[in-house]
Amino acid sequence: MVAELPVDTSTPSVARMYNYALGGKDNFEVDRQAVGAAESLAPGAVALAVENRALLIRMTRFLVTNAGVDQFLDLGSGLPTAENTHQVVQRTDPRARVVYSDNDPSVAAHGRALLDDDERTTFAVADLTDPDQVLGNETVRRHLDWRRPIALYQLATLHHQPDSLDLPGLMRTYVDALPAGSFVAFSHFHDPGGVPGQQVERIRQSMLDHGTDADHFRSRAEIERMLPGLDLVEPGLVPAMDWWPDGPRLADPQPVQHCILAAVGRKR
């Protein structure tokens, strides 16, 4: 079990910054300042968070409605906001089970309080960079049936991890552990070069300036290696805004919206 640390309100937290960008209230002034600085340096930085939440909703609808999945393991889930995974899932299938996992102290405290009365949704404190810790967690093992397909979420998580970690190997461990017929929902910040690439470098520098681990905007080839052994659902690995959009785009996307790639993959 991972020991829960006290909440640090003196430096920004990625989870609380994301919460603020989505209109949540579980954040502090230091988080709001960091988000504001990133947005002032690279207009559209907040749009990345909004884009990723909209993606989560669309992917979740697809998995529960089209793929018939009724078990979900949401890694690095972050702080509760509107339209969390279990809310989207259980509108269609009230019997579906969801496990959220995170090791951020703020997330652990708020997540457990939110889910106290929901017997089909639970929270596990574990570090997503340690697959053995996550997969061996008592809550994860007990709450999900590992004989049947599971949807594993790695949405906007691994771009917070350094190059020193073997991220393709980490993902291989997760995929190997999933039952046949399972799915992986995935998104990751991308550096496409050009004007969008200049934007992401400003976001990265802003986060470094505010004392947080800088986001890693990786190449397409690097991101593809994090999806080992999976058959990608159409349209494959694409900008998040292009993954099963809800309707036609009525305005040109901001450059920064090209800077997050997404895919859903199925394990045979």
Automatic annotation (TrEMBL):
Q: Which organism is it from?
A: Saccharopolyspora montiporae
One GO BP on record is:
methylation
GO molecular function (one): methyltransferase activity
Q: Does the keyword Transferase apply?
A: yes
Which keywords are on file for this protein? Answer: Methyltransferase, Transferase
Report which superkingdom the organism of origin falls in: Bacteria
> Which lineage?
Bacteria, Bacillati, Actinomycetota, Actinomycetes, Pseudonocardiales
**Which SUPFAM superfamilies does the annotation name?**
S-adenosyl-L-methionine-dependent methyltransferases (SSF53335)
- Whether Transferase counts among this entry's keywords is yes
| Stored Pfam families | Methyltransf_19
Q: What Gene3D superfamilies would the database entry show?
A: Vaccinia Virus protein VP39
Record-given protein name = SAM-dependent methyltransferase
